[in-house]
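Weekly sync notes, structure subgroup
Attendees: PM, AL, DS (notes)

Item 1: joint prediction request from the bench team. They want all two components modeled as one assembly rather than separately. Inputs as received:
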Amino acid sequence: MEYILSASALTKSYRGFRALDDFNMHIPKGAIYGIVGKNGAGKTTLIRLICGLQEPSSGEFTLYGVKNTDKRICRSRRRIGAVVETPSIYMDMSAADNLREQYRVLGMPSFEGIPELLQLVGLSETGRKKARHFSLGMKQRLGIAIALAGDPDFLILDEPANGLDPQGIVEIRELILKLNRERQITVLISSHILDELSRLATHYGFIDRGHMVKEISSTELEQASRKCVRISVTNPQSALPVFDGMALEYSVVSENDMDIFSTVNISELVLALSQAGCQVQSMHEREESLESYFIDLIGGGAHE
Amino acid sequence: MSKLLSAGFARLWKNKLFYCEILIACTLAAVASCTQFREMREYNVTITLEHSLFNCTPFILFFAAAFISLFTGSEYSDGTIRNKLIVGHTRADMYLTEFIVNSVATLIVYAAQLLLAFALGLTMFGFFTIPVSEVLLQLLNALFMIVALSALFTMLSLLISSKSTSAVICLLLVCAFFVAGMYLNSGLSEPEMYEEYYMLDSSGELAKTEPMPNPRYISGVKRQVYQFLFDFTPMGQAVHVADYTFEWYYPLYSLILIAITTAPGLFLFRRKDIK
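Output from the run, pasted for the record:
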C-alpha cells in the first residue's frame, strides 16, 4: 500500500511532558483518515509536526517518501494544505484578497483560479467584505480555500467542524467528500464529533496520551463492530438471573437498559422475563458505533 | 524568497497602519517646520534647511516600534505565519522577508517625512548652506540607523508570539532608549570646568572666581563607555542625525546592531515552536 504519510516512534516533549510518545501512523493514499482522541491526546501536536510548525523531539515521519530530517521535506510540504486549529486568514482582507496573498506566497503565475476556489467553498458572494466580519463557518471555509490554493493532494484539517452550526457541518462534510472523490485529495482530519467523522472517514487512527492505540480501516471497523439487542425492562434485578440462566452475553448500560450480544430467541426471552416478573418495555437491534468502539478501546473514564 | 517578498509587499501596500504612520510622520514634519519658521520670525534666529530637515528623526523610533510589532505581530494573531510554513517556505526566508519588508516600510515613512520637511524648509528657510554631500552623509547615517532599528524590532516581533506583548515591549524599549539617551547625553554634555565668572561680594566689590573642575564631568573609561552607549543605540544615532554630527563608525555601529539582532533572531526563530 502506498502511504502519503508514515510516522515512526515520533515523540514531542514540552518541558518534560510528552505530548506525542513513540507515535506510529500510516496514512494510505486517497484515504480520508480520521484521527480520534480525547482533548490533549496529541492530535494537534501531530498536525503541527507534520506541517513543520514544530520539530519532533525524537523519532521521524515520512511525507511522500521524504524524511522530516531531509532538506527536501520543504518541497514535499508544497503538496499539502492545512487548517490547523483556527483558520489562518488576514482579518483585514476580503476572501479574494486572502486568496491572492496565498497565491503570491505559493508563487502562482496568475489569480485566475480564485473565483473557482471561492465558488467551491461557497464564498463567491462575499465581495469586499472583510474576513473579520465573516461568520465562523465562513472563516472555516476560507481557511480551507487557502489550504486548497496550491492544488494540494494532501489536506490536513484540525477540528474543521469546531463551532459550526449543523448546516455548516453538513457543508464542510460535503466539501471534504467532494475533494476526496473528485480531486483524489487524501485527507487527514481530526475531530471530536465522532458521529460526523464516521460519515466521512475511510480509515481511523485512535490516539491516547500521545500513543497510537489502533489504526483501522472503516471496513475493518464495520466487521469488528458487534451487533446487539438493546432491551429496556421494568425490573432489572429479576432480569439479570434470567440472562445468566440462558447463558447470554450482556452488559448493563443504564438502570433499566441492557445490551445482549448473543443471538437470542426473542419469544423465549420475553416469556422467561415475564415468568420472572419483569416486563419488557422496549427492544431493538443496534450496531456498535464509532463512539462506543472508541470508548471500549480507550477505556472511557479509566483513562481520564 | 521572492514569492514571500511579493506577498509581503502586497500586504504592506494594503496596510492602513502604514499609511496612517506616513500621515502622522508628515504632520509632525509640518508642525516642526512651521514652529521653527515662527521662531525664526519672532525671535530673529537663523534656522537653515539642513537643521530643519532632520529635526523629527528621533520620532522614527516610535513609528518603527509600533508598525513592525503590529504588522509582523498580526502574522501570529491571524495565524497566517502557518500558511507560509505549511507550504514549505524556510524559516530563514520568512525571517529575512519580514526584515526587508519592515525596513522598507520604515524607510518609506521616514522618506515621506523628510520630503515634506524638505519641501516646506526650502520655501521657509531657503536652500542648504552646507555642501549637499554633508547632507547625504547624514542621510546615509539615518538609513543605516533605520535598518538597524528594523532588525531589532523584527527580531522581537518574530520571537514573541503575542502581538500585543511584542507591541508593548517594542514601545517600552523605545521609551527606555529615550530615557537612557537623555541620561547619557546630559552626562556627556557636562562641561569639564566651570567657567570663571564675576560676582559682587558683601562689600560691593567685584570679585572674580577661578575656573573650577565640574564634579559631574564624566571622564576616563566611564566617559568612553557613556559615549559608546550613546553612539551605539538607535536613539543616540537619531540624535546625531538631528544634530548633524557624523563619525565614520556610526554606520558601522548600525551594521553591528543588525548583525547581533539578526543572527540570534534567525537562530531562535528556526527553533521556535509555532502554534
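Discussion: Chain B touches chain A through 28 residues (CB under 8 Å).
Action: AL to compare against the crosslinking data before next sync.
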